[in-house]
Specification:
The chain is mostly helical. It contains 5 helices and no strands. The protein has one domain (6-165): Up-down Bundle (Ferritin).
Length: 202
């Protein structure tokens, strides 16, 4: 579609965000199911409820514009969600998966923050103050979610992942030592038998 005016670009960007939010509505329940940390589960569930409101706000903006929100697929959000799916399919340890889910979720938030910041600015430039206020509300909520995810990561989830990694390293080391010790014990009788056989032969 050829775009010759800022208004046309504005509508196109809004359609992209609408598609992104609709995709996120389908992705967030899966993220919540795969999270093991209760606070992270709650954060994803709460953001699902917020996202439903974000969709309603966008629909209100389209009503004011007398435009349809449909007709475009956000390939950017599609790619971000696919990265999250790939992480889950790799089946990392629970603590590591939680840390990874935060990483993927924050990429989504940063993508949306950039998008909403842009359309809010366009709305102001076009004199659409009511639309700008609706978009500003969503922009602020996306920023709050990003900040919450950062707090969860820094105060607990990343720490749990590091602790789990240290415990796994210690456990692996203990297993290797046990295996080496067992091999040593098994080899000792064989060595003794070979020595005895050698003495008898001489």
């Amino acid at each position: 579609m050829q775009m010759d005016t800022l208004r046309e670009l504005y509508v196109d960007e809004l359609k992209d965000l609408y598609s992104a939010e609709k995709q996120l509505l389908r992705a967030l329940p899966k993220m919540a199911r795969n999270a093991s940390n209760d606070e992270l589960k709650a954060a994803f569930t709460d953001h699902l409820n917020q996202t439903e409101e974000h969709v309603r706000r966008l629909e209100r903006v389209f009503e004011l514009l007398e435009e349809s929100p449909r007709g475009k697929k956000c390939v950017g959000m599609e790619g971000l969600i696919e990265e999250g799916n790939e992480l889950v399919e790799e089946e990392p340890a629970e603590e590591v998966l939680d840390a990874g889910l935060i990483s993927k979720a924050q990429r989504v938030e940063h993508y949306e923050i950039a998008g909403y910041g842009t359309v809010r600015t366009y709305a102001l430039m076009l004199g659409e103050r009511e639309q700008a206020e609706l978009l500003e509300q969503t922009l602020n909520e996306e920023k709050e979610t990003d900040e919450l995810l950062t707090q969860l990561a820094e105060q607990s989830i990343n720490i749990e992942a590091v602790t789990a990694d240290a415990e796994k390293t210690t456990s692996d080391r203990e297993v290797r030592r046990a295996v080496a010790s067992e091999r040593k014990r098994e080899s000792s009788p064989r060595k003794a038998a070979r020595k005895q056989s050698h003495r008898e032969a001489t």
